[in-house]
Every structure is written in structure tokens, then in C-alpha cells.
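Standup notes
- DV: blocked on the single-chain target, sequence here:
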Amino acid sequence: MTVDSRAALSRVQPGRHHIGGQWTSPASGRLLDVEDPATGALIGQIAAGSAADVDLAVAAAGDAMQVARKRKWTPPQRQDALLALARAIEANGEELAVLETLDAGKPITNARRIDIPASAAILRYFAGWATKLTGETMELSHPGNANGFTLREPVGVVGQIIPWNYPLMGAAFKIGPAIAAGCAVVLKPAEQSSLSALRLAALAVDCGVPAGFLNVVTGSGVEAGAALVAHRDVAKISFTGSTATGIEIAADCARAMKRVTVELGGKSAVIVMPDADLDAAAQGIAMSIFLNTGQTCSAASRLLVHASIADALVERIAQIGAAMAIGPTMAPETQLGPAISAIQRDRILGYVEGALAQGARALRAGRPLPERGYYVEPTVLTGVHPGMAAVDEEIFGPVLCAMPFETADLDEIAALANDTRYGLAAYVWTGSLATAHGLVARLRAGTVRINACGGADLSMPTGGVRQSGFGRENGRAGVEAYTELKAVKMVY
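- DV (later): unblocked, structure below
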């Protein structure tokens, strides 16, 4: 079944938050325009959230947790609600895919095949954790009649801030573990792509999530986001986004002794050794850096390849990028959509032009791009080196920086990969088990993948080191991050 754009947009109340299970007008009455990045056309408006709206949402979340404690919203009930919400995503999948396409510039085929099923799978995974969070008993070290045990309790109301690159999946990643742990949520989506999160909140009410357990306040980061971080009744902040903003949020939370998880930027290295399967490596690297127009935190954006195979691999990757269909996002054959905004497009192109001015070369098809919208062509930069902004800084676009090396020394290769202020992910392509293990031990990254560049498995913790953030999401660690560990000593 197909859903047209007008029908999909009609499911989201224009210019309103979703607070306490209800559509709520912004306290200020101000609205923000929403545009389709594929055309630049205005498609609607969202509420410009303020501190007053955040106050209302946090209060609704706190009240919901109090009611849940009194009425005992049990772990099995939380599990059932998340499972029901996963089914609702699938049942409304075409509508949500259209929203993602219009709002975030995702090709409709990608939204259908990736974002919708992945969002449902995320909620299903975390639903299982609702019934599996436990404390433990221990034998106390001092003599006497006493025993000890620990309890895992919800940390409280949590504020969650997500970026614009994977709006629905980002919302699912945040709310899944929080609700599984029994926490109520105030979610602040990116102002560029808020529509699917609003629709998700409305669906949650019909799926058994108590009113107030999932609140969505839209608006800018500097106003709504900052108010959420600063709110005294928010026990934890979980933020995914830029390093610069994450540093400010972490500092604010530290001053308030507030729990915080920040997943920030990346400039992830992919190392390709001479014994690698070049066709598989080329395909994996191209999809990592070009898919979603390169707007992926863990994209393999720095290619470190042995000089003996560098030309062959770079040519393969460039050919894959050149063959990817760029065009209208509602066309089924389109593989690559636009950057999220004119600002982001110009930022990406600025990095490319800066590298070219410093002597780099660009491998790209040079094909005409759509006249409207914020499109960027897949590009491989060669002749680059550390010290160039394109190499050192996160571009967040479909731009791969390729740098050959000649050494076989693993310490020297790892040093090249670690020559960055980031540490979100790293990738290694090799046919040698010894090389793989040797580089895993030497690479400074929160995640290392061998002979793969795909997304993280839900069962494995993800997160960064250095300026890619701290704390972990996914897996047991991601759920336990929404709990406090209480130690109990009982004398009898």
C-alpha cells in the first residue's frame, strides 16, 4: 500500500508538541518552518519549543513515573508496550517512510528497506531487556547476621536529544532502552527532521505506553535542547550529535552531577591490507561513506590502504559511487538523496574545495545534479594528508579521503589510524587473523569491525573514546545506563 505525501503529513499535528499523550501548542506560539531537502519546498511547520514547554513535558514525565510506581507498570507490560510499538511501526511503515523521505531527504526505497524495519527491530530488541534487568546478592565480608543485595532502579526522567540523519531510528535507539528500564522520556528531535518522532509518540499512546512516558518537544537546540539539559528534574541526558555541542552538554551535566551519555562525531579510519578481498572491501567502504549521503556518525571516511593495492581499490570505490543513482527522493530507483540542508551541502562542498586548493584530486562522475535540493556527488579525494581540514575534521558527507601507506608494521599502521581526535569506529580489511587481532589491540576506537563496514549489532555496546564521546548504548550496557544501582545491607 502506498501513502501519498499529504496523507502522511496529515497524521502529524502541525506546530504542536506531543506532551502527556496529547498534542500541545507551544507556549510561545512560535513555529519553525520544515522543508523538503530534496526540493527546498516548505512542507509544514513544527513548534518552536521553549523552557516553558520543556517544563510541561518534564512534569508530565515525572507524574507518569509516579503513577507507574503506584499502579506498578510491570516489566512484562513495558515489554508488551515496546513490542506493540514495533508492530505499529511496521503497520504504518509506508506512512513513516514517506515522512522520513520528505523530512530528512531519504530516498523512499532506503527508508522502506532500512529505516522502517530497523526501527521496529530496535524496539523489539530492547523490549526483551525489560524483563531481564536484575540485581544480585552477595556474601558480606564482615561477620554477623546480615546479607546484602543490589537493586537496579530507573534513573528517573531522562532527556534525549537526537540528530537529523536517522530520525526514526534515532528515536527508537533512545526510547527503547529508557522505557525498558522504566524511565519516562522527554525527546527533543533535531529541528530539521522532527516529524517521524512526533508520529511515533502518537502511536505509542495506542500501544500501551502510559501518557507522559514518551513526550516529544520540538524546536532548536539552543532553546529547547538547552532547557532540557538544564532542567533540574531531568536525571539523565542522552545526546547524539556534534562534538562541539556534546562537550557543552557534558560540561553542563557535570556541574549539575547529572548522568550523561554522549555519542559524538567521528573520522573513522578503514585500513585495507594487501591480502584483503578488494571487491568486498570496495563495496563495504562505498556503502559506509556514500549511503545516506555520508551523513552517518561512524562512516568509514579515512581510507588507509597499502600502496600496492591503493589505485585498484580507489578506482573500484569511485566507480561504485559514480554508479549510484542520484535523483528525486520519491523515485524508487534513487539510491542517494540530498544533504539535510543548504548549510550542510555548502559545508561539505567547502571541505572538498579546500582540499582541492591544497593539491588534492577528486574522483567523481561529474554528472549533473538535480537543480533543486541540496545534492552532493559521491567523491573520493586522493593526494590528501593529515593537516588538511578534509582529513582531520568530520565532513558528514559522501567524501572519502584516501591515503596510501607502504609499511607492514602494525604499530605504524595503527598510529596512522589513531592520528585523529576522534575514536568512534575503525575498520580493518584483511585475510590474516593475526593481522586482524594485532590491529584490534592497537586501534583506539569504541568499535572495531573486521572485514565489515556495516552498522552495529544491537547486542553489542556502541560508543566512542576521546572526542567521539563517552558512555555506551545498545546491549546490556545501553539499558543499564538508564538505571541506578542501589546497594542494600540487611541485618537480622
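- Follow-up: The radius of gyration is 23 Å.
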